[in-house]
Every structure is written in structure tokens, then in C-alpha cells.
Design brief:
With about 375 residues, the chain is of the alpha/beta class. It has two domains: about 140 residues, Response regulator (Rossmann fold), CATH 3.40.50.2300; about 170 residues, 2-Layer Sandwich (Alpha-Beta Plaits). The protein is built from twelve helices and 13 strands. The strands form three sheets. It has a six-stranded mixed sheet. The protein starts with 6 loop residues before the first strand and ends in a 14-residue tail after the last strand. The C terminus is likely disordered.
Length: about 375
């Protein structure tokens, strides 16, 4: 659903209860009536403050339907659900003679839609707590409200529970979106099998472990001085928008995002390649015996892989990286200088909002894109 679902089904055999609850939740102020807090604000701060408060309160609107018997409520509930317009909240009385009581009605409703939020509202003790749990089971979607109740308690329940329903609905929508987009991107069974095989092969490579800055330099030096050295590509890359991810999902969520990125980077390493982490969200990948064209192809393949959303704490995210590339020839490769040039190219990519920048302007086929 793309809009806030504010639909409430009120079930009670007493018509006056319907009028009272609707009056409370719909902020009825006809005939010049004001709620108590407006009077206090008028006295302390003048009518302007009260008007502002009333505007804020009045912005909370609910679509309230009434049913006076369990059978009638069940039919309304089923019809709304089957037409794709479910209720977010049901406020249910327990005693409603001569038909089925509220507990029985709720039990039937949950067989139709177990995602609805429920408030059991009663002045009697026909059912004890143990009996209700036995009938309905343990659930965080069932709350209790004893009559008589204060209006602020009812308002708080209505707002918190409809908001809770909508947050859960959006999460389900995001997950469905993720599944649909993955299917559109052609993740066939064969393709998934090949990726799994490649990942398994990668996990077996000892050189795919994540190196720190010092170990990375030592490994670079060893590679350059080793026999059979044929040059390499140094790719420094940065995760775009990582600060925003940390702020939105906390540091633990940010760590999960980095682990997803590291897993994808490792999956693209061949034998002899290696990588290291040199900053909070900056990495360096070494492609041995790779020239400019091969480095560019590697980055494009990585970007294609990152275009598939990843699910982090039930939230789908598309990752994007920016890269600085230094192509090192087979002779006269200065490790410290080459690494610095790759990091400088990355800084240039970030400042110009480009996907790829090559050190020393070599084969600069960089492209401009939007932000994360």
C-alpha cells in the first residue's frame, strides 16, 4: 500500500460506545467545543498556540466503521480483506449477546487476516487472561483496554497500532519489491548456480582474506618483487553514501552493509588477486596481470552485481561504489607511490561524482551518475 491505512473497525453492541469512541478519535469539535488542553493553552499562551495544537491533533484522521454484532463484524472484515482494503485496527467488545462474543469473533478474524492489530475492550471478566491466551494464543497484535477508559489512552492505542500496522506493511512491500527486481534481473537457476560455484571457489582461496593497510603494502611489495610479475591494476574504491547508511541503520547496520560489500568483492577475485581495507569504507583491490581494459571490465561487472539490491535488516539497499584506478606496468612499479595515486584518483572520483577515475588521466572513460 502506498498510503497510510487508517481504517478502524469498531465492534460493540452499545451504540453510545460507538458515538463516544468516534468522538474521541475523530477530534469532534462541533458547536465550539474544545478539548481541555486547548483551554489551558488559551489561558497560558493565547489563542494562536491553541490553534496550532488543534491543527496538529486534527491532522490525525481515521476511517471508522461500525458493527454491532460479531457476525456482522466478521462479514465486514472478510469483505474488506478480500477487496484489498483491510482494516489496520479492530476495537472489539467481548459481550455482544445474542450472537458470538468478541473472543470468538477475533479468532475467526485472525483466520482471515492474522496481520490486523486488535484491541479487546470490555468492562466484564467473562474471559480470564489464561482463557484468552488459550483461545487466541500469545501475540503482540492483541492489546487490552478496560472500560471505562481515558480518552488519551484510546488515542494513544489507535495511533501506535495503526502506525505499527503500516510499518509492517511497508516492510512486506519492500521485500516483495526486492524479490520482483531480482527476478527481473534474470536470476535464473542456472545463473544462481554459477554464482554459488564461483563463491565457493572464492571462499577456498587463501588470498581472498581482507588485509589491513600494512599487510596490503607488504603483499604488494612481495608481488612486485616476485618472479613472473607482469604488472597489475590497483583499484581503490569507496562505498557511496555510507555515512547516511550508518545514520539511518546504526553502526551495526553499517557493519552488515560492509560485510555484504566485502563478500561481493571477494567473489570477483581470481587466483593471485587480493584486497585490503584502508579506511572506514574504503578498500583496495589488486588485480594481478591486469591492464586498463581488464580493470575497466572488472569494475563494470562489479557495478552490475551491486545493482541487485541486498537485504539488510529487512531493508533492501542498492550499493554503489566509486573507483580510482592505477595501472602499474611490469617494470618500475613503486608500491607506495602507485597506491597513493590510486587513492588520489579515488578522491578525484568522489569530488567529481564519477564512477571511475584513472590515475594520470589514463583511459579516462569515467561516467557521471547521481548520488546514492
Amino acid at each position: 500500500m502506498t498510503i497510510f491505512n487508517n481504517r478502524i473497525l469498531l465492534v460493540d453492541d452499545n451504540e453510545s460506545i460507538h458515538l463516544d469512541i468516534k468522538h474521541i478519535l475523530q477530534n469532534d469539535d462541533r458547536n465550539g467545543r474544545k478539548i481541555g488542553i486547548n483551554k489551558i493553552e488559551d489561558e497560558l499562551f493565547g489563542s494562536d498556540a491553541s490553534a496550532k495544537h488543534l491543527n496538529r491533533v486534527s491532522s490525525i484522521q481515521y476511517e471508522i466503521s461500525s458493527a454491532y454484532q460479531g457476525g456482522e463484524a466478521l462479514k465486514m472484515f472478510r469483505d474488506s480483506y478480500e477487496h484489498g482494503n483491510p482494516y489496520a485496527l479492530v476495537i472489539m467488545d467481548v459481550r455482544m449477546p445474542p450472537g458470538m462474543d468478541g473472543i470468538q469473533t477475533i479468532k475467526e478474524m485472525r483466520n482471515i487476516d492474522n496481520l490486523v492489530e486488535l484491541v479487546i475492550c470490555t468492562a466484564y471478566s467473562d474471559y480470564g487472561w489464561e482463557q484468552i491466551v488459550e483461545q487466541l494464543g500469545m501475540s503482540d497484535k492483541i492489546q487490552f483496554l478496560s472500560k471505562p477508559f481515558e480518552s488519551i489512552t484510546l488515542k494513544q492505542l489507535a495511533l501506535s497500532l495503526t502506525t505499527k500496522w503500516n510499518i509492517a506493511a511497508r516492510k512486506r512491500q519492500y521485500i516483495q519489491l526486492l524479490e520482483n527486481e531480482t527476478e527481473k534481473l534474470g536470476k535464473t537457476a542456472d545463473g544462481l548456480g554459477k554464482r554459488a560455484d564461483k563463491q565457493s571457489e572464492t571462499n577456498q582461496k587463501s588470498n581472498a582474506s581482507l588485509l589491513n593497510h600494512q599487510s596490503l603494502v607488504e603483499r604488494l611489495t612481495s608481488t612486485v618483487s616476485g618472479e613472473g610479475y607482469k604488472g597489475m591494476a590497483i583499484i581503490a574504491l569507496d562505498l557511496v553514501g555510507f555515512k547516511n547508511i550508518n545514520e539511518a541503520m546504526s553502526f551495526s547496520g553499517g557493519d552488515l552493509v560492509l560485510k555484504e560489500l566485502e563478500t561481493k568483492l571477494a567473489a570477483f577475485l581470481d587466483i593471485g588477486d587480493f584486497m585490503g581495507r584502508v579506511g572506514a569504507d574504503e578498500y583496495v583491490v589488486i588485480l594481478t596481470a591486469a591492464d586498463s581494459a581488464e580493470a575497466k571490465k572488472w569494475v563494470e561487472q562489479l557495478e552490475s552485481e551491486l545493482s541487485i539490491p541486498v537485504l539488510v535488516d529487512e531493508v533492501p539497499l542498492r550499493l554503489r561504489v566509486q573507483c580510482g584506478v592505477k595501472i602499474c606496468p611490469a617494470i618500475e612499479t613503486a608500491v607506495d607511490l602507485s597506491l597513493l595515486e590510486a587513492l588520489s584518483a579515488l578522491a578525484s572520483a568522489k569530488s567529481s561524482n564519477k564512477d571511475i577515475v584513472y590515475a594520470n588521466s589514463i583511459d579516462d572513460d569515467s561516467k557521471h551518475t547521481g548520488t546514492f
